[in-house]
């Protein structure tokens, strides 16, 4: 009953920019950390950026200075602004959140929620 929906992926040329928004919906009491992961073909999923409810951020070294994660706690949203994109940024990007919400059984508990993923392709 809690879900994350991403959007904003697509094809962009090297050096270009994209913004990936993600919205949480459902029976949510609170959201702790939110994050973006990515998975390139043939590679494991990696953490790209994370942000706490207080706004503290963390980035993988390969995107520092180029990507910015932000969130709106009132709207239960998180966004990833990606600048100076490189071909190696090509991947499926997944939104993730630590949510205290209601399960289908009607119980409130901590949930690790994932979005369905959105494809970002950086190519000339």
Keywords:
124 residues, four-stranded antiparallel beta sheet, elongated, mainly beta
Structural description of this entry:
- The strands form 2 sheets. Strands 2, 4, 5, 6, 9, 10 and 11 form a 7-stranded mixed sheet that branches.
- The chain has 124 residues and is an all-beta fold.
- A hairpin with a 4-residue loop joins strand 7 (67-72) and strand 8.
- 0% of the residues lie in helices and 60% in strands.
The global form is elongated
Mean pLDDT: 96
The number of distinct β-strands equals 11
Overall helicity: under 10%
Topology, pairings included?
Elements: E1 2-6, E2 10-12, E3 18-26, E4 28-39, E5 46-51, E6 57-59, E7 67-72, E8 77-82, E9 91-102, E10 108-114, E11 118-122
Parallel strand pairs: 2-11
Antiparallel strand pairs: 1-3, 3-8, 4-5, 4-9, 5-6, 7-8, 9-10, 9-11
Outline of the structure:
The chain contains no helices and eleven strands. The chain has 124 residues and is mainly β.
């Amino acid at each position: 009953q809690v879900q994350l929906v991403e959007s904003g992926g697509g094809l962009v040329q090297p050096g270009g920019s994209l913004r990936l928004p993600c919205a949480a919906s459902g029976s949510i009491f609170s959201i702790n950390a939110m994050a973006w992961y990515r998975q390139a073909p043939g590679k494991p999923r990696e953490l790209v950026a994370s942000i706490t409810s207080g706004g503290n951020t963390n980035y993988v070294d390969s995107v520092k200075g180029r990507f910015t994660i932000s969130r709106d706690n009132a709207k239960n949203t998180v966004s990833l602004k990606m600048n100076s994109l490189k071909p190696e940024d090509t991947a499926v990007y997944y939104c993730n959140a630590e949510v205290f919400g209601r399960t289908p059984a009607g119980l409130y508990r901590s949930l690790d929620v994932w979005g369905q993923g959105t494809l970002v392709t950086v190519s000339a």
